[in-house]
What does this fold into?
Amino acid sequence: MNPARLLAILFLLITLGVGGQTPRALAAEPSHTSKRSLTETGIEWPTQEKLWRTVSLADYNTRVVFGGVTALGAAGGLVGTFLLLRKRSLLSDTVSHCTLPGIAIAFLVSEALGFKDRSLPLLLLGAAVTGILGMASVAAIRARSHLKDDAALAIVLSVFFGLGIALMVVIQQLPTGNAAGLSHFIYGKAASMTAGDAQLILYASLAIAFACGALFKEFKMLCFDTAFAHAQGWPVLTLDLALMGLVVAVTVIGLQAVGLLLVVALLIIPAAAARFWSHRLGITLLLATGIGAVSGLVGVIASALFPRLPAGAVIVLAAVFCFAVSFVFGAERGLFRHWLEQRRVGRSVARQHLLRALYEWCERSPRSGKVEPPAQLLDRPVPLEALRTDNHWPESRLRSLLRLGRSEGLLSTDPAGNHAHLTARGKIEARRATRNHRLWETYLLRYADVAPQHIHHNADQIEHVIDPNIVNELEELLAGRDDVLLVPADPEQPQAQGTAGGLAS
Amino acid sequence: MNWTELDTWIVITGILICMACALPGAFLLLNRQSMLGDGISHAVLPGLAIAFLVTQSRDLLPMVIGAIIAGVVTAVLTQLVQRLGQVENGAALGVVFCGLFATGLILIRVASDKVDLDADCVLYGSIETAVVDVGRIPRVAWVSGGLLLANGLLTALFYKELRLAAFDPALATTLGFNANAIRLGLTLAASVTTVLAFESVGSILVIAMLVVPAAAASMLTHRLHWLLILSLGFAACSAVLGHVAAITLPGWIGNRIGHPGLNATSSAAMMAVVAGALFFLAWCLSRFLHRSAPKAPGNQPATSAVRTA
It folds into this structure.
């Protein structure tokens, strides 16, 4: 199914779920929120009853905040993924700082116009205007000067935020300034979210999701191959601006809930976490949306249980936790998966080195006096000391290689520990490993014009990563014998060339 | 506008601290690490909070140590996330500093029961209150003077290495200088500067001064030593003009919107704004100069980065 459509459906479900709750909740009694005394200190563990009430979203306030913050987290994850893929994650940081002067100016304007109360839409409008202005400044600096992304972001961030702080200090001197609660926009105050705020966030998130769904294909192209999109005649600049507009939208609706210092986390962290799980854009988007929503959910519940904890910070920490889990256990890029992969490749390389070393020892030291049929070449026990010195292996390396060989049933060692015998399977595998190596060496020497002293290293790099299926295919083409694998002579030894001494006949 | 001794000290401290930040800032700009200042200034919060929790006081030394550790942890964690997780540089920094900042906010909330502390006073420490001191010369002036001296000495001592690492890390490595180590040292110096400076004057001024003067200077010159000299000049100008703007503008605006008698606004914030204005002027000037300059064949194009001497 089209990921865009999936996303749209997901959002519809979330919205219906939360929207459906709101009317019922409106009819419910507003719960009694006990006023905590100022002298009360410390983090206090909630009672079981309170725990249950919170987790089951029995309180009206919790439900409202839950709806708003979850939708916000989901929208942040969605837009943040595109932003991350566009390699502009920190732009969200700049945009969020840029909203502060807008809020302050909007407040001053409403003061000058004589409004009595602060009106949220006006403040948010101001925030959006300076957010867009800041974004445009970044784009202008990037396009019209030699400065790079990071410098443009840092300049715009610090200058706009400085202006914002200067204006805030002025506002605090106004008679109405202290009561305005503008500092909530800096740190956020999710708990004071009203049903109207939550609905605003919901509808805005829905609109953002809709825009992402509608522009899915275009954004995908923009993120993965800008040059191609440009060459195909897509309006790259307009699309970029549309994406930045969505970033501003998420930032502005997030200001109240988590504050401008932390809303950036909702745009960066869920997306970065989701990237560890999939290489597919659709799945990454779904995961980022989900991680954002879950972080919001966890943050709301935790801050309802512990009212003294700042909700915004808890939301961010929940997201960071998701990130840490993804970082370690992510299915595509996680550390654990990476480690397993490295271990697997390391074992396979070590195995091939061991088998080739055994084969080459047998080849180098023929039994004196009689011509040996190639089928019996590998029958003899190999002295371990010779194996070790020939290959310059330290004692520990030899031991670990032998352990590996024994555990895979490729060889057995005699009780005294002086000699190694290849098993039947080991013989086949040893021939195969040596053969692969030499085929590559031959190819490099004949067709790739690689100097003889370099072929060993180059072949070593390529033989371990070649797919066994390809080797099988090649072997079928070569119509080799069933009983013994063909092993060409070592092309590194000039005297061996052309004698076909190692070829089974 | 009545100028007092306090104003003089604010301007002197401002000049010193802006110049102290501009020096490492120029190299951060060349290394494309400008957002580091922003990241560190958020991320040191848990370091400060833990220092408070451990010592139960607001002494300078443990606070600075905690902040420096947090700054280094930020730089190292960012590198780890970036390398091991193949996360893009900006996103890695974002994840790390957001996480640390959130931790810091929670720790401060927990600590605020025991120590009088809130995030505002940490993040927006103000230069105006810092210069009010019992002695003749305010402590913050000593700190910023010392910082400027230390950064100046470090720049002079490692000028060659810093230049090499900024312009051609590969060449630096082949010549036997460890470019990564030099960059780490720069990061460290920037962290210490950030922490010491914003403890006294607030984070916003530090973030601005780490990048804006250097960026403005880079508009006007392609030579590294001129870049440094011009950065220092821009930084000093921002400090002076910023303070003047801070004590004159609010009254002027207040009269316009019907609130006469407004007092001065935050000097640190206005210094940042003035630095931005100077940057804009330098930018326009460079555009103008570039347009009017005759294009000789073989000239460096406008987009070329700053060249080494």
